[in-house]
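Title: Comparing notes on inverse folding

I've been comparing how different people in this forum approach sequence design from structure. To keep things fair, I'm posting one structure and asking everyone to reply with a full sequence. Here's the target:
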């Protein structure tokens, strides 16, 4: 059939599809697509000072690093932070004219700190094979495989360039750091300054909190005066929610228990455990070797080992499983063993993904192992043969596994290490390949057991899940606003739980855990909106109401109150104490009016101004070293924990022993440490548009 004929046949459907899309776009343009134009470029993940972060390239990096054992959401968050930092810093490098020349890049790629070092290091000598790395790199440059070249660039080249630029940038900043003579002298004087001071102190705790009311206007006025401390950089939201438990019920547990009990006779009569577990599903895999009792972590092991060989203990409950334990065998074995081995692999496990792949046929591995045995029998050293042939990661350490306990190795390896005598040598085959093993040592002796565990998970039945879903759906359907939401919760005796400070790109909500779909819903709705359908989070159904939309800037008083209220209350207490209690011009008069006493500190150090009973109060120490009021009584001062008036009696310098050069180096070191805060300052100054929530 021709292409034209197929178009004619399908034409009606094409026209219908176009009309449907137009209608959908018209109907939804003000709602579902309010967060972005349907026909706009949707491949921009964000922008940093106008520079776009391409979603396709970002996803390629996610895929590239995705096998490193990190959860996807964690990886996305870290990569985003890295991309933002790289763009910001590249813009700084460009302003300064910093770059990495081709010659510099070549020196980096083929130096001792080469990013290729791991792949091109001689395993026997530890030498970086520079020529091999150069040849491989030249081949990559000539390759027509653009995807491979991009992967190499992103994995090796780009990070190396960024590191080199960062080193140059930091060198420029560090080169500009210095400590002038006056600064060193000032620091030296501060370090040696000591004051003798008398004072009167009235703590804020002398006034009851209940006697001082704080209004919302006072909260906001204080926050505005300290806006840098309380302003939010990005929008956040708050919710209240009610939970409906959808975890396994007593009936579900009983059903699982019955299922396992029905299998007990069959399990007891089975003689080939490997074959039995090959056809029977169990939450605990069968380990076909012996483990010392002290290494067995089963809950009821003391009772299990009292069962005779062939007998069964259980069913018993172990966390979320019901378990039957069958004792297969008992013997006395060493507590630990030391071996060395040479592995000729047939399969290898990816340490990042955990997947196992075949790397060599059995027949090929067997021939290599024959060569290994021949060379060892001919008198070649074990270490040299191991380094030459072994595929194990410890090949450069002579293939030695120092003393390890039972159950740490695959069963066949475990059997040889613990059941053979010291000095035994031989070839065994495991799921990873062929091993030449020699037992070097054994320690201790205790009972060991081979036990098979048939475990069934307690799963949630459809009836239990539907009951929870129906209850949650009924609650959602009858909760029309915040008032009815709270009333319905009270009728069901359910707690209404709060969650605040939820960011648009969060994956977790405090108290709920992994709840990305709920976070997306929260940001697609407004204050007062209630989930029309319950949302499943873990083993719970959640019905939530949006209670707060907190825009960037100062949050409302209700959000600020827990953080600010005590500071405002202390300010009001200070005014009350000063207005009603601090009367007089001498410390003695002030002590009398406040019903306290004059206290004295003989040696208050400027470098460590700790005041007994008060702690560190910068206003107290500032007044104590104020030479303009030496011998005079200060005005009443509202400090961190109370109101005080001070009289500096003497300000002097203790004998200084610190070398001015050491002080200078400390100042410069402090400046260098401040560099680590530089990135945060640049990030805050940048204009960052984050569109991740549209995609994830």
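Reply #1:
Here's my take.
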């Amino acid at each position: 059939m021709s292409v034209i004929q197929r178009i004619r046949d399908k034409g009606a459907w094409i026209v219908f599809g176009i009309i449907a899309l137009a209608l959908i776009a018209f109907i939804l343009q003000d709602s579902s697509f309010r967060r972005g134009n349907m026909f706009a470029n949707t491949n921009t993940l964000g922008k940093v000072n106008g520079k776009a972060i391409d979603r396709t390239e970002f996803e390629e990096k996610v895929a590239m690093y995705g096998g490193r054992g990190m959860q996807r959401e964690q990886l996305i968050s870290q990569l985003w932070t890295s991309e933002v930092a790289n763009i910001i810093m590249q813009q700084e490098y460009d302003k300064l004219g910093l770059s990495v020349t081709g010659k510099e890049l070549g020196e980096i790629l083929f130096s001792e700190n080469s990013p290729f070092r791991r792949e091109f290091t001689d395993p026997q000598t530890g030498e970086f094979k520079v020529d091999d790395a150069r040849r491989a790199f030249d081949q990559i440059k000539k390759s027509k495989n653009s995807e491979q070249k991009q992967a190499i660039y992103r994995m090796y080249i780009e990070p190396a360039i960024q590191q080199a630029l960062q080193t140059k940038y930091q060198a420029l900043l560090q080169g500009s750091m210095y400590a002038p003579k006056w600064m060193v002298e000032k620091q030296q004087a501060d370090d040696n300054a000591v004051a003798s001071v008398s004072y009167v102190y009235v703590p804020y705790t002398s006034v009851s909190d209940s006697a001082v009311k704080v209004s919302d206007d006072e909260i906001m006025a204080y926050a505005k005066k300290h806006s840098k401390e309380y302003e939010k950089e990005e929008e956040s939201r708050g919710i209240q929610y009610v939970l409906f438990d959808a975890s396994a019920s007593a009936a579900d547990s009983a059903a699982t228990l019955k299922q396992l009990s029905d299998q007990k006779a069959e399990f007891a009569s089975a003689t080939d455990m490997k074959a039995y577990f090959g056809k029977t599903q169990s939450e605990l895999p069968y380990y076909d070797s012996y483990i010392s009792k002290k290494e067995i972590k089963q809950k009821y092991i003391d009772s299990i080992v009292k069962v005779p060989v062939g007998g069964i203990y259980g069913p018993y409950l172990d966390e979320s499983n019901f378990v039957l334990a069958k004792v297969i065998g008992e013997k006395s074995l060493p507590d630990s063993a030391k071996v060395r081995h040479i592995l000729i692999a047939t399969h290898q496990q990816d340490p990042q993904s955990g997947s196992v792949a075949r790397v060599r046929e059995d027949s090929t591995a067997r021939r290599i192992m024959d060569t290994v045995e021949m060379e060892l029998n001919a008198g070649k050293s074990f270490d040299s043969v191991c380094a030459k042939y072994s595929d194990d990661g410890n090949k450069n350490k002579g293939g030695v596994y120092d003393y390890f306990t039972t159950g740490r190795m695959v069963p066949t390896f475990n059997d040889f290490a613990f059941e053979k005598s010291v000095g035994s040598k031989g070839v065994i085959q495991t799921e990873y390949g062929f091993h030449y093993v020699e037992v070097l040592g054994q320690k201790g002796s205790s009972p060991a057991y081979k036990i098979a565990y048939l475990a069934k998970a307690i799963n949630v039945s459809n009836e239990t899940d539907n009951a929870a879903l129906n209850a949650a759906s009924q609650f959602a359907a009858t909760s029309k606003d915040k008032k009815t939401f709270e009333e319905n919760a009270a009728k069901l005796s359910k707690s209404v739980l709060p969650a605040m400070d939820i960011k648009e790109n969060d994956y977790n909500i405090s108290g709920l855990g992994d709840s990305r779909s709920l976070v997306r819903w929260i940001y697609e709705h407004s204050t007062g909106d209630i989930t029309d359908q319950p949302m499943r989070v873990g083993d719970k159904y959640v019905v939530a109401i949006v209670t707060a939309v907190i825009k960037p800037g100062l949050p409302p008083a209700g959000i600020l109150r827990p953080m600010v209220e005590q500071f405002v209350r202390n300010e009001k207490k200070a005014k009350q104490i000063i207005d009603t209690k601090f009367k007089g011009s001498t410390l003695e008069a002030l002590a009398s009016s406040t019903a306290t006493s004059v206290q004295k500190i003989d040696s208050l150090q400027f470098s460590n101004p700790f005041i007994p009973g008060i702690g560190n109060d910068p206003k107290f120490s500032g007044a104590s070293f104020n030479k303009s009021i030496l011998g005079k009584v200060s005005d009443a001062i509202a400090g961190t924990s109370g109101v005080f008036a001070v009289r500096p009696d003497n300000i002097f310098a203790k004998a200084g022993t610190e070398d001015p050069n050491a002080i200078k180096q400390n100042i410069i070191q402090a400046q260098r440490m401040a560099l680590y805060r530089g990135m945060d300052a640049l990030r805050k100054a940048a204009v960052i548009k984050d569109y991740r929530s549209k995609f994830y």
